[in-house]
Amino acid sequence: MSLPQQNHLALKYYVAYAASLAAAASPAIPVTGRGRVVDIRFTPLVSPTTNPTVITPKVGATQMQLNGSNITMSIAAATTAITGVVSLQPNGLNIVDVGDVIVLTSNAGAANAASVPGYYTVVVDERSI
Question: What residue ranges in the chain does DSSP mark as E strands?
């Protein structure tokens, strides 16, 4: 009896620390593989206050899409620190290649955006290309 065939690791996880949700702290993540961005998450380390913060995900200068429309990710005011994960699953204009950069641009909407650090996690499925 032969052993089961193992598929290579297809999901690549990129994690970026953002010192704040301020626009100036918007991360740019260099890509080291080819695939499709299938998930973007943000985990705040401090709860944002008063207003939502809108994050615009892009591959280079091209905004990612969902079902043919440009998308954004909204981090609501009072999102729970550490456990309040905000996620987005783009399905269009989300192909990345080696050397591309994923840009997560913040509009700094939260009143305390400068003091809201957190982690972005971007998942790229390399099987899908």
Answer: 11-18, 28-30, 35-44, 53-59, 62-63, 65-66, 69-70, 73-75, 86-88, 95-96, 101-106, 118-125
pLDDT in tens, the chain (129 residues): 666 666 666 899 999 999 999 888 899 999 999 999 999 999 999 988 878 999 999 999 999 999 999 999 999 888 888 888 899 999 999 999 999 999 999 998 887 877 889 999 999 998 856
Q: Both tokens of residue 129?
A: 């290309």
pTM over 0.70: yes
